Amino acid sequence: MNFKHKYVFLFPGLFVLIGILIFPIIFTIRLSLSGWNSYTPEMNFIGITNYIRLFTDDPRFWESFFRLSFLSVSTVILQYIIGFALALMVWREIKFKRFFRVIFLIPMMTTPVIMTVIWRTFFHESLGPVNDLLGHIGIGPILWLSDPVIAKFTVIIVEVWQWTPFMFLLLLAGLLSLPKEPFLAAAIDGASTFRKFVYVTFPLMAPISIGAIIIRLIEASKIMDTVFVLTSGGPGTATETSSFYIYIKGLREFQMGYAATLSFTYLVIMIISLTIIAKVLTKLMIKE
Amino acid sequence: MKIIKTCLTAIISSVMIFSPMAYADKWSDQFPHIKATGDIPGECSYESMSKKNYKGKTLKINTHAVPVMGEPTALHAEQFAKLTGAKVDVTHTPAGDLYAKAMVPFQAGQAPYDIVFGFSNFINDWRRYLEPVPKKYVEMKQMQDVTPSHIGIASWDGVMYQFPVDGDRHYLKYRKDVIDNPKYQKKYKADTGKELRVPRTWKEYGEMAAYFNDWDWDGDGEKEYGSAEVMKKDDLMYAAFYSRSAAYSKNPKTPGGFFFDLKTMKPLINNPGFVEALTDWVEATKYVPPGGINFGLGDEIGSFGGGQTLFSFSWDDAFVAAMQPDSPINNKVGAAQLPGAMKVWNRESNSWDEGFNQAPFFVWGWAVGVAKKSKEKEMAFDYLCFFANEANHQADIGIGRFGVNPFRDADFQADVWTQIGWDKDIAQSYVDTLAEMEKSKNRVFPLRVPGTFEFNAALATAAAKALAGQLSPQAALDEAAKQWEDILNRVGKDNVRKAYAVGVAMEDNKL
User: Fold this and answer.
1) In this complex, is the C-beta atom of B125 within 8 Å of any C-beta atom belonging to chain A?
2) Is B149 on the interface with A (CB under 8 A)?
3) Counts for chain B of helices (H) and strands (E), in that order
């Protein structure tokens, strides 16, 4: 029997894949080999000049990358810890369980840009309510947005507030799907709550935890809107992340060719590093 | 007969005297924005526009975020729509994205916007995509009153690409009620041994700002601070830095470039003059309000205009905002030229020239053009002409948050400002300050070269690093100079030199 016609059914999906994934990547690679900018808006070929510039003469990109690594890893760890704690709380039989579940999800349902504008107002150092309240108890004013170190933690606070509910949701779904038998066995053995968590809940949740952490790491590594609205990468370049730096090079300074180089390099680095992180997490969290 | 004659004379006189007002009232009733003047006859007046019919057509505008320039754009769009029947879509974009928002479609050969707002120093990158302003607009009456320097700003090689809607320069704004206050003058003298006066130099500015920082000197129960400045990276902070640098680096004895040495195209921005200015600026982070290191233009306007600081320097907006009737410091502010310095760097002798030096910085401001690929060019130019008509212009320049500043000869008359409630001496000091800047022979003009956005962004990033304490002033400016060299190599030294020579000729008073 001839089954060649079956390939016809693959075409729609293939076209979509080529259109939305393959073509943009190939175009980005080609663009990265050009010097397209505001004064020479053309797809000329300049070889690997942009890549040489990136690897030999652009410390700002690498600084932004390491800053991004710090921000994304720390926010995701905090989100995981808080999200897990909240999920455990409403997993049990407590009063107003449904109410709390909805309340915990609200931050995630709000628009990040709008919420960041509100956070920026809260943290405004001379007009915002946070410093005003702290002032009443003799603290401050704290330079939430204009101290290079504190500004990073301000970004972390906003990110954790916004995205912990996502972690909470995934982990709660995981908890609700766990089998009951291991918990019954632990209870019969007289295991304490702590031991039940360490030896039963946490190991059973490991695959879900890894998935949730990786999803959040992918998202956190693209952090842009929070930084853009809250600090514009400042003070100085203290909160500038890779995606914000690429945006500046591409859409502010209009160095399209170089921005494509940064984007493609960043994509490769992220694919490699997230693969390694996933493997390391699997090794650490899942015991055979 | 005599009675009839008298009556006729009275009627004719009344018609002659009151007809312009009746004419004005007709439009100011519908459009309260121009209630102070009514409509003023002209090619693009309310009356003239009401005779145009753009029904069924849509005009698309990309402008700045509200309020600075965004608010008047939207207001005049609404008025224009009412008068002509056109549909006007206004898109608001943050300042840092105005360049790219126009450039992306420009380079793709598209025209999603008929009108694009930006800054006048974009002209070199944008002009190939903009429609030159048609002769009929260039020659019309309202354009004849625009100062020659602002006609020059809007033009390149004698062709006008940008429609003049704004005129900009940086100058000093100060709290007159403090600086001229005998009680504070005595106290300052007793505490510091120095005179309290309008600061002549940046060092004096810093000393006074530090002295009046972080205490309630106006008795309103709130703390006040020394200075409000645009220090936020990517929010025009490079212009603030150039303003602080001009006195230390623009040496009238060494013509041939402020940013580059025109002969060699070597960047000058890391010479000791610029480093001194950046060192002063880093010091200024100690006397700005909390969070002042993140102040953008809107914050600076709100801070000084709201009475929070002793000094400020930037565009007119903060001053005009402070002078509005609803301002807590209405008629309590003064204007003066930017402070100078007691030494200026001489790049030829490689040493400081001692003595007072002052150099105004003409920060060419908002600019607007019509896309070459627009299908509604006539309507677009009519809108811009209407935006800048005399009635709208007079109303707009009196509203600080609008960001529309003087650029016509008529604006430099004190009467224009006393009519909107300014004290006579303040109005006079304001127009004198602007006029003195026009007359100065030691001016600095902004970069208008290919890749200007890259140059300014590199400088702003370096300066921001110094302000944040990430780098020393010298290291930051060395980094910027290195980046300027790289940009020069990418763009081509000759390309940049050719364009820069035009600005240098203006600075050296050869144009």
Assistant:
1) yes
2) no
3) 22, 15
Q: For residue B44, what pLDDT band results from cuts at 50, 70 and 90? A: very high
Taken in order of first residue, the domains within chain A and their CATH numbers are 59-285 (1.10.3720.10)
**CA dist., res. B486 & res. B476, Å (int):** 16
A179 cis-preceded (ω within 30 degrees of 0): no
pLDDT in tens, B124-135: 889 999 999 999
Residues in chain A closer than 8 A to B232 (CB atoms): 232, 234
Name the residue among A38, A125, A252 with its Cβ closest to that of B291: A125
Q: Which domains does chain B have, with CATH numbers?
A: 37-168+367-412 (3.40.190.10), 171-361+442-507 (3.40.190.10)
Indicate the Cα dihedral angle B108, B109, B114, B119, nearest 10°: 60
Strands B115-119 and B58-64: parallel
Mutate to test the interface with A, among B126, B216, B294 (most CBs of A within 10 A): B294
Alpha carbon B190 to its chain centroid, in Å, reads 38
Contact at CB, A125 and B290, closer than 8 angstroms: yes
Strands B260-261, B225-228: pairing is unpaired
Percentage above 70 pLDDT, chain A = 99
Chain CA centroid to CA B501, Å: 23
Least confident window among A51-55, B58-62, B117-121: B117-121
Q: What pLDDT was estimated at residue B17?
A: 41
Residues of B within 8 A of A254 (CB-CB) are: 99-100, 103, 453-454
Closest approach of B126 to chain A, Cα-based (Å): 9
Q: Which pLDDT score is estimated for B299?
A: 86
Q: Which residue has the higher pLDDT, A287 or B468?
A: B468
| Among B residues 255-294, those touching chain A with beta carbons less than 8 Å apart | 289-294
pTM of the model: 0.85
Among B338, B363, B367, B505, residue whose Cα is nearest residue B445? B363
